[in-house]
Amino acid sequence: MPHYWIYNSDPEIKRSMLSELGINDTMELFKDVPENLILKKPLHVGFGRYLSEYEILRFLKMQREKILHPKIPPFTGIEMCIHFVPAVVKELMLRNEFYTAYTPYQPEINQGILQALFEYQSVMAELYGVEVVNASMYDGSTALAEAIRMAIRATRRRKIVIARSVSPIKRRVVETWTYGIGVSLHYIGWDENDGSVNMEELSGKLDADTAAVVVEVPNVFGVVEHRLYELAQEVHRIGGLLIVFANPLALGVIKPPGELGADIVVGEGQPLGLGLYYGGSTLGILGVRRDMNLIRQMPGKLVGMTRSYLGERGFALVLQTREQHIRRERATSNITTNSALNAIAALIYVTWLGGDGIRKLSLSIAARTEYLREKIRSVDRLQAPLFTDALYFMKIPIKFLNKDCETVSKELRRRGILCCSDLGRYDSELRNIATICVTEVHSKEDIDTLVDALKQVVM
Amino acid sequence: MEWRQAKWDEKLIFEYPSLKQSHIVIPFDEEFAHYKEKFLDKVMKRGIMRLNVDIPNLSEPIVVRHFVRLSQQSYGVDVGPVPLGSCTMKYNPKVCNEALRVLDIEEVHPEELDEYVQGLLEILYLLERWLAEITGMDKCSFQPPAGAAGEFAGALMIKKFHEDRGEHRDEMLIPDSAHGSNPASAAMAGFKIIKIPTSQYGTLDLEALKSVVSERTAGLMLTNPNTLGVFEDKILEIADIVHSAGGLLYYDGANLNGIIGIARPGDMGFDIVHLNLHKTFGAPHGGGGPGGGVVCAKGALVEYLPRPLIAFDGTKYYWDYECRRCIGIIRAYYGNIPALIRAFVYIAMLGPEGLREVAEVSVLNTNYFIKKLSKHQSVVGLTHDTFRPRKHETVLSASQLKKDTGVSAEDVSKRMLDYGIHAPMMYFPLIVDEALMIEFTECEPKFEIDRYVEVLSKTVTEAYRDSNKLKCAPMNTAISRLDLVRANHPKKLILSWKFKNEIKELQNELKHS
């Protein structure tokens, strides 16, 4: 059946091509497929026939009516919070040369993508305070899992110590990715007063087989770990590595993990100009300090600066001998497709903001967090915020004392507010704890509306 | 036939003169002014305040111009043909962009309650049913962010399946023609890789397979059609051999384009299948990603699929998290939603017959190309086995050409760029010497295939006359051939703007060249 996307499906063209081959029917080209495998009737897919562009869009418009948005921007966010995406990013993401391109294995014809990825690596290295960041991973959670596998290879040790304050979704992804390869995961709790890593518990867990310690900044409760420097010293003392998962937007106002001693930095790039899109695709950030042992163990693609034989500056994929298409079962990872286009989106966003813009944005989000922290205290029947002495960024944790978290979020949603997913869904120890996420899209009025609604709901 | 790519001497963003401050306007910023000091006080007390982010502050028009120029120095399917094997670089229908705009899900949060996103869940539910039907599987999970992650999920499913039966099976069988991601994924799940050779017919060597299957065989990972573009015609026997030994069959969906709508992996005996939405189902490749992976399973393997799965209880659509034996979650949340929406639109707009047309025309294109090429007397250096029809792709070898002229597969590829045609996949599969792997997909028109043959034959003729010209190619791209030895040299390696000394050294070198 001819189709508008397929020039050669035209009967006349098809006939001329078949006659070139000396056959009458394309099915003759499938003669080597066993007869009993050939489908005898059409697949039961689509709407039984092909749809026109208008029809499919009309169908989707109907579906859109069944997608109900909250009245004010959502306050939920275990792995991602809502952020503003500027028009510049949206428009440039539709440049056909970018989004329809293949992976730039032929550097001469894809210098633009390569230069953009080199710039991406550079701005991320600057934000995280390291020298090397790869050209992207799928998302934050898988980037963390790969960082852990990398630490195991680099240290040849088998034990990983993870803060329980790392988001439970990421911890579960890590459990999947380290399954059955003889890696043991050990969890450590938090300080009851300030929500940061419990240093005593940590010291007790470190030994000569510890490959790495993993913490998140801000952690799942929104708490900024403020003892990274001491943490790094502790871990390095036993020859292990420090892996820090950090929100890039927090790094406009707080010192970058690389500067405080992290060996591997990881992050979720969605806050940098990517939409929520119901969870993805997003962008995994993964970097290391400048150490050839670590660099050689990195997963994913790396773009390097070099020259052409005629003396022009140019960019190309480098250190590919780490990768699956060359090293196969001995590769550092199986990753092939990554998130290049989202990396370019994040780069455009960061460039649009500028270094000073990132600082301003960071601080503005931090100020909202302070406002919410103060405001939320007026709600009774809540332990809010969960930790009294903590430094919070973007999120405030609350614990429901008289009501079930799930009931509350349903009730709030009925009022047009999306808030307070139960962390207990992913880790039963965190039952009835939720975080409220505030970003640059939330006005004072939005936050006040939420707090008022919460007051009514928990009554 | 002259083609020229844009050539901007475009600076890095770090080389633009930066303003002292950014003039970005942050929404509602002034409402919270009072709270900034409070936060800064606390940060300062803890001694972790950041003072500077060294990224230039520019104006919006400068940013736009910079990236438009970079885009003009890039090349994708919307610019010209990208006929490289195994990656199915087909047209990305524009209606899919419009579909995403119409659905308006950019601000839909993944933690939204199911009942408020019924319109979206219904689409995903339908798509799941369609993909199960296309592959002949019972159920699909959208979790894998890409194909390789689907392979890894599949390998873990196989591992847990055997473990639950108390069997110790630690060997994964993989053909020597397989994509590198297959052995890499299996190794990540802790399997030992047993390589199966390819026979003289370009298919899996059955005798070799029989000799290695044992009580330690966990499974076989197979691509069908394989990377030579040849259909594994003994697939039912292969499945039988592996199943009889207690192993499972994994289908790498990278090459599904060659048989979609004509035959199904499920009917061939495969237990697990992964799909690449950015190959077979029209989602874009994005200069490397994001793509979209789906992993599907049959029978007892369904229980092992990564969760959550999309479900319908007769009145409402919901995510089913129930996981008794499942391998867990592969990534945060549900899947690469935009790629899934694109695949939905793609399938709906082709319908069952259109999907079959995809396979028919992609196979017709391959064989038409082979036939046309074989007629060109000038193409003496490129050998090609023609004993069987190829499916979605074919592999040439420049081995003879290299012996005769010193011109390599890489040189041929670079010269093709000069004509505004993306090079073939080079040096893959590994079992073919000086390999050039070519896949037109269903989208390339007859006249582009004809042109491709002409360019290839011209290039080969040129190789015999003046091989130097090929060694210097490309000349018409944004930059001429890059020095990859220098790029990878451990002492000269430059991986970011922070490699200041190395960059200075490079600049000096360029000044004097």
Automatic annotation (TrEMBL), chain A:
Key words of the record: Oxidoreductase
Chain ranges of the Glycine cleavage system P-protein N-terminal domain: 12-453
One BP term from GO: glycine decarboxylation via glycine cleavage system
One Pfam family matching this protein: GDC-P
Coiled coil: none
SUPFAM superfamilies in the cross-refs: PLP-dependent transferases
Keyword Oxidoreductase in annotation: yes
InterPro entries registered for this protein in UniProt: GcvPA (IPR023010), GDC-P_N (IPR049315), PyrdxlP-dep_Trfase (IPR015424), PyrdxlP-dep_Trfase_major (IPR015421), PyrdxlP-dep_Trfase_small (IPR015422)
Segments passing through the bilayer: none
Reaction(s) the record says it catalyses: N(6)-[(R)-lipoyl]-L-lysyl-[glycine-cleavage complex H protein] + glycine + H(+) = N(6)-[(R)-S(8)-aminomethyldihydrolipoyl]-L-lysyl-[glycine-cleavage complex H protein] + CO2
EC number in record: 1.4.4.2
Annotated GO MF terms: glycine dehydrogenase (decarboxylating) activity
EC primary class: oxidoreductase
Function: The glycine cleavage system catalyzes the degradation of glycine. The P protein binds the alpha-amino group of glycine through its pyridoxal phosphate cofactor; CO(2) is released and the remaining methylamine moiety is then transferred to the lipoamide cofactor of the H protein.
Family under the similarity heading: Belongs to the GcvP family. N-terminal subunit subfamily.
PANTHER family from the UniProt entry: GLYCINE CLEAVAGE SYSTEM P-PROTEIN, GLYCINE DEHYDROGENASE (DECARBOXYLATING)
Subunit structure: The glycine cleavage system is composed of four proteins: P, T, L and H. In this organism, the P 'protein' is a heterodimer of two subunits.
Official protein name in the record: Probable glycine dehydrogenase (decarboxylating) subunit 1
Species lineage: Archaea, Thermoproteota, Thermoprotei, Desulfurococcales, Desulfurococcaceae
Gene: gcvPA
TrEMBL record, chain B:
One Pfam family cited in the UniProt record for this chain: GcvP2_C
Alphabetic keyword roster: Oxidoreductase, Pyridoxal phosphate
Residue intervals of the Glycine dehydrogenase C-terminal domain: 359-463
A GO molecular-function descriptor: pyridoxal phosphate binding
One GO BP annotation of this record: glycine decarboxylation via glycine cleavage system
Stretches assigned to the Aminotransferase class V domain: 157-305
Record's protein name: glycine dehydrogenase (aminomethyl-transferring)
Organism annotation: Ignisphaera aggregans
Higher taxonomy: Archaea, Thermoproteota, Thermoprotei, Desulfurococcales, Desulfurococcaceae
